[in-house]
Amino acid sequence: MAIEIRPASVFEDVRTLIGPKSPGANVCWCLSYRIPSKLNNELRGPARGAYVAELCRAGTPLGVLAYDGDEPVGWAAVAPRSDTSFARSRKIPYVDDLPVWSLWCIRVRPGHRKKGVSHALIAGAVEFARSHGAPAIEAYPIDSGGARVDLTMAYAGIRKNFERAGFTHAADTTSVLAGHPRVLMRLDLR
After folding, report:
1. Which ranges constitute the DSSP H helices of 8-96?
2. Where in the chain does DSSP place strands (E)?
3. What is the mean pLDDT of the chain?
4. Nearest to 79 by CA among 128, 25, 6
């Protein structure tokens, strides 16, 4: 399987990865960290997908997608930290004043897992951030200590995958997912 990473700008492909099976469902659409909490709570059902469609039409990719041929098989959300709720987080600390980018969600479609897609997504998100002038990129993965992590909550990624991609531990956090602590991992892009 040859994985190609492309900017996440085609709404239909984005919907394939992060949209619900039922259009009326109140799923994340990977908006929870991207938009202010008040707006996130106001957008219900189909309005969430419509909001993502508008973001795609606006021309700024929401992250990156992994493709196997023409089939979208993976998603990674990446953006300047200042444009996310991590900019105001009390649980995820700041390391310094660099205008870092955040990589906060990785999703691989069933049937395509355990084939290196998440590693390709991390590398693609790093290159996407670098190509947009990011001096560094951060991620906030789960540090499970090798314990199994529920797939629903594994969207933040696993520490060892970021270490494999060259990220280093930059800080502990007070954030916890699925009973596991999250750590702040960083890769300098300068």
Report:
1. 11-18, 37-42, 46-58
2. 3-7, 63-68, 71-80, 101-108, 136-139, 168-177, 180-188
3. 94
4. 128
